[in-house]
Amino acid sequence: MPEIRVMNTSELPCGHKKTVKLGETEILLIHYEEGLVAVQSQCPHAGAPLKEGAICNGRLVCPWHMGTFELSTGALVEPPPMESLKMYPVRVEGGEILVNPEPLPTATSTPVQKEELVLLVGTGAAGAIAATTLRQGGFAGRILAVDPVEEEPVDRTVLSKMALSGEMPLDQIGLSTFSSTKVERIHAAVLELSAAQKEAHLSNGSVVKFDKALVATGGKPKQLEIPGAELAYTIRHPRDVQRILKAAEGKKEAVIVGTSFIGLEAASALVQKGLRVTVVGKEKLPFAKLFGEEVAHALKALHESKGTRFRLEVETSSFDSTWVTIRAGEKDERLPADLIIAGVGVLPDLEFKHDLPRAKDGGIATDASLRAKDEVWVAGDIASVSGTRIEHWRLAQQHGRVAALAMLGQDSRYEGVPFFWTFHYGKQLEYLGHTEDWDEVVIDGDLKELNFMAFYIKQERIAAVLSCERETQTAMLAEVMRSHPTLEQARQAIA
Q1: Phi, psi of 53 (to 5 degrees)
Q2: Which of 176, 185, 336, 425 is packed most tightly, with the most Cβ within 10 A?
Q3: What is the pLDDT of residues 272-318, one digit of tens each?
Q4: d(C-alpha 165, C-alpha 168), whole Å
């Protein structure tokens, strides 16, 4: 296609981005330190406007979920996107910027014809991106995925958010990666895995011999050990949401036991569907342990302003078909409950025999490349990477990609910044980094209006950042946090 003159170079100074539309194609022009590039205008993951993203370290960071791309090539650096950016030919002539709306050919790796079988134990976030990364890296051998849940892989992050509220249909949350990457599927559970023998015994009676394996069985919801516990729903798979939505029809009173992210996201979704929701928890404040009391008060106030009711600092004693019994001090109290959801966290799903090294935190110990033993890598909720285990879908994707690159023989190791997001009544909170304690919390912005950045400082360095309504600034910090900045350095970066 012929080039099109789109603007004068004076209209796009260094450090700026501008969207242009060429026919039906919308293109983002970016002028950064190393030159001028033209890329697709929306993130390939969820369609976020990349114009609102951040440019840092020669990379473009998506403002919604921190997907990261190399600007010089468009290559994917960090998920949740599972593909690189489309790049368009662009050049400067006579002070004018010219763009060809026909995208450049996608870079592909030469297929490596090996008679190898890679076994994926688990088809969640880590398994899905591992399969994609292997194929993108040229692996042409067999990939066999084993999982008892047929509807995986899906974008699990939307289950307790948009799917439960009805904002996003369940048939739109699937990831089509396995059909596009020629992955063989077996719907079964792994009963035993031997890294030494390179074999896995499955619940359907078969034995799989593998050359390399990625174990990513994820987490399983914790079960309450109280009378009537079987009456409570949990949220892990699309079928769980389907059951809850069906059970909620015509109901008025819902009780959610647990102040986890899933519990509070579910509260937000069900209140918006017209139910009266009471959240029951042992804690004094939801999220206080992770975010601190000041932020926790603000989030609780948001929920209460929308109709969520709380009964905190209580124990849950029992369930029956119409009541939840709680104990506050020495007194029992019954809460009306047409629908009960348990959101009390997850445990590593490791209900199979194996010879992998166990970590003190209950997961499987791995090195920075996600290798646990011999030719077996471990990723996601069950992976304790260099002594740290974090349960989140996006981190599982980071793990899966790192492990797949290591399988391909690259010097791959996890050096990214952990990131997760949570969604409550239209407010998305984004958390970068990881810390279990801090010396100080510094809040910039208006916490009451939930337009802020909270910096969690430990030993004069930022260990974590929580933000709301600060997407572009957070995207910038996703790169800056790699160097463990001081508060002053972080503020300068986002000024």
Answers
A1: -80, -175
A2: 425
A3: 999 999 999 999 999 999 999 999 999 999 999 999 999 999 999 99
A4: 8
Residues recorded for the chain: 495
Contact residues for 57 (Cβ-Cβ < 8 A; gap 6+): 479, 482
**Angle (nearest 5°) at CA 50 between 28 and 295:** 160
Helix, strand, coil % over all residues of the chain, rounded to 5:
25, 35, 40
* C-beta neighbour count of 120 within 10 angstroms: 30
CB 366 within 8 A of CB 348: no
Kindly state the tokens that stand for 256.
Answer: 């959610």
- Let me know how many helices (H) and strands (E) the chain has, helices first: 10, 37
CA dist 332 and 30 (Å) reads: 62
Are 281 and 308 in contact by the 8 Å Cβ rule? The answer is no
d(CA 472, CA 430): 11
The candidate with the shortest Cα–Cα distance to 313, out of 279, 356, 348, 344, is: 279
Q: How far is residue 269's CA from residue 261's CA, in Å, rounded to a whole number?
A: 12
The string of pLDDT tens digits covering residues 155-167 is: 999 999 999 999 9
By the 8 A CB rule, do 347 and 222 touch? yes
Spell out the domains of the chain, with CATH numbers in brackets: 4-99 (2.102.10.10), 117-220+347-407 (3.50.50.60), 229-343 (3.50.50.60), 426-494 (3.30.390.30)
Nearest to 213 by CA among 271, 309, 300, 126: 126
Distance, CA of 344 to CA of 42 (rounded, Å): 36
Query: Considering the entire predicted model, what is its pTM?
Result: 0.93
Edge-first strand order for the sheet with 309-312 is 309-312, 276-281, 253-257, 339-342
- The H-assigned helical ranges of 43-108 are none
Is the pLDDT at 113 greater than 70? The verdict is no
Alpha helices in 221-350 (DSSP H): 238-248, 261-272, 288-291, 293-306
Return the number of other C-beta atoms located less than 10 Å from residue 7's C-beta.
14
Q: Of 240, 244, 199, 236, nearest to 218 (Cα)?
A: 236
309-332 residue pLDDT tens: 999 999 999 999 999 999 998 899
